[in-house]
Design goal:
The structure is a single chain. The protein has about 375 residues and is α+β, with helices and mostly antiparallel strands. Helices cover about 50% and strands about 25% of the residues. The strands form 3 sheets. A 5-stranded antiparallel β-sheet has the order 4-3-7-6-5, with helices on both faces. The longest helix is centred in the middle third of the chain and has 53 residues, at about 155-210. The radius of gyration is 34 Å and the shape is elongated. The protein starts with a helix and ends with a strand.
């Protein structure tokens, strides 16, 4: 190597060493990671202690400083306690090593963002005892000469358990509602409708025996028979809305077909159903969820949209199933969607979440609204 190049390289190394020493003297560096035969080792710097370290050590949350590769340069005792790992084993380790496998991709994406700006994310950590810990990560990029991330780790396990309990409670309430609907529908069909049918037959028989009676009596019997017919039709409609027998006996598509026909006949709205000839095998709970969402969506179309037509489209591609309900009625700005959602859309979202599906409400100004249900099978 020419002498001039050697001198230039030595000058660059000297400048880099001077910058490192300046950072250490100013307290910008908390620790050094030295790579040797035994792997990376972390040496904390006594001179880097600041008054704020007392506060950090007293925090009820975990705190750490990571370099741009995610290696832990500093950790308070609380984080080591949360991870059930000795502090000396936490220092110098990669934070990713403590992240649950299911959350590693999400953490990597979060950390890239955290190196640039303030960020937060919920992830699952593994402790050395084999337990899983739900935590909230809050971070800021380091504002010193050293590049990295300041991280605060908050244990949210109790909150997550409470959320799961509430979700399970809501699921159980929905299940109880469906069971009660099924019971009432069966009672209406098997008991009330049978009584009405028997009464109608007797009224018709009485009318045939009173052919020679006065005209007024015949008219009253005719009105009674017509009223019984309308009552029976209304009872059948209520029973179907509570729990369609087609859903249990024939499956999802026949049940949706009956729903579409009933809504079109009753409202005058042109409703069409598009479905593949063969759907994948679906659980009874998922079929009921799809039916209820379609039922609620068409109810919203009838009550609020002023639409003249609507479509229900079922699609199955590979391992995904989707259902889209569109109408040509009035819509509203996305910014007002949450305020205008009402109980109907909230109920649909809740039902979708209970089966692990996504539900998207898409306003189409001037073209109506689309409700898109999508689930991985």
């Amino acid at each position: 190597m020419p002498q001039a190049d050697t001198i230039r390289e030595l000058r660059l190394r000297l400048a880099e060493a001077n910058e490192t020493l300046a950072a250490i003297r100013s307290g910008a560096v908390d620790a050094l990671v030295v790579h040797g035969p035994k792997g990376p080792q972390v040496f904390t710097l006594k001179g880097a202690d600041h008054a704020y370290r007392l506060l950090v050590e007293a925090m009820s949350e975990g705190a750490a400083t990571l370099d741009t590769r995610g290696r832990i340069l500093y950790s308070n005792a609380r984080l080591a306690e949360m991870l059930a790992t000795p502090l000396e084993k936490v220092l110098g380790a990669s934070f990713l090593d403590f992240v649950n496998v299911s959350a590693r991709l999400a953490f990597s994406q979060y950390f890239k963002k955290a190196c640039r700006r303030q960020a937060s994310a919920e992830v699952i950590l593994n402790t050395s005892r084999g337990q899983q810990l739900a935590v909230l990560l809050s971070s800021n990029p380091l504002q010193t000469g050293v590049r990295g991330v300041c991280l605060v780790v908050t244990d949210i396990t109790i909150r997550k358990l409470a959320e799961e309990s509430l979700t399970e409670l809501a699921r159980q309430v929905l299940l109880a509602q469906e069971q009660e609907r099924q019971r009432v529908a069966r009672e209406l069909h098997d008991s009330v409708n049978q009584l009405l049918s028997t009464t109608r037959h007797r009224a018709q028989a009485l009318a045939s025996h009173l052919k020679g009676a006065d005209r007024d009596s015949q008219l009253r019997l005719g009105e009674l028979t017509e009223l019984l017919e309308r009552t029976m039709k209304e009872v059948r409609l209520i029973s179907r809305n509570l729990r369609p027998s087609e859903l249990d006996d024939l499956g999802l598509v026949p049940a949706l077909t009956s729903l579409v026909e009933e809504v079109a006949d009753r409202t005058g709205i042109r409703v069409t159903l598009s479905a593949p000839k063969h759907l994948p095998d679906l659980s009874a709970h998922l079929e009921l969820t799809l039916y209820r969402i379609a039922q609620e969506a068409l109810s919203n179309v009838e009550k609020h949209s002023g639409a003249t037509s609507a479509t229900i489209t079922l699609e199955a591609e590979r391992r995904f199933l989707s259902m889209t309900i569109c109408d040509n009625g009035k819509s509203f700005p996305p910014s007002r969607l949450a305020r205008k959602s009402g109980w109907g859309l909230l109920n649909m979202r809740e039902r979708a979440s209970h089966v692990g599906a996504a539900l998207e409400i898409v306003p189409r100004p001037g073209k109506g609204t689309a409700i898109i249900f999508r689930i991985s099978l």
